[in-house]
């Protein structure tokens, strides 16, 4: 979606609102496509004393797989949009400023960039997910698996002594 801002560029306190859906289902993130539902973007661009400010939110329900146990789960993701908008950059230091194409702002690009940059690199089904047993692959969230813990090789001789005492 392209938002034409010519009506508010030179009018202090003027505001232009937007609301649209964006399909990011084809975006490949770390080998998966978790954004299967449309992203709902809502917000406005306001002229604050000559400075154009984009404010809003972008949200979607993500379909993810836990990085510890592999269980599939859904989680809502909400990203806050808050950027300055300008017709040209004065210097290269402010790369977070969104540039207008003439008098139009490409909201699809702005929302896509913000949403993808806010994606987590690690997804857990819960903060206390125990994951899978490294030996047998059992889901440790369901209970202990019965595998004996590995003995640190530096302490193997002591473990043998303890086993002899137990006999």
Core attributes:
single chain, 167 residues, mainly beta, two-stranded antiparallel sheet, 2 helices, 7 strands, elongated
Question: Approximately what portion of the residues adopt beta-strand conformation?
Answer: 25-35%
Radius of gyration, in angstroms, nearest whole number: 26 Å
- Sheet with most strands: 5 strands, mixed
Q: Helical stretch count? A: 2
- Give the overall shape: elongated
Q: Tell how many strands the DSSP assignment holds.
A: 7
- Give the overall average pLDDT: 87
Distance between the termini: 75 Å
Q: Give the helix proportion (percent range).
A: 10-25%
What string gives the helices and strands in order?
EEEEEEEHH
Spatial ordering of strands, largest sheet: 2-3-4-5-6
- Uncertain stretches: none
Oligomer: single chain
Put the structure in a nutshell.
This protein has 167 residues and is mainly β. The protein is built from 2 helices and 7 strands; from the N terminus they run E-E-E-E-E-E-E-H-H. The mean pLDDT is 87.
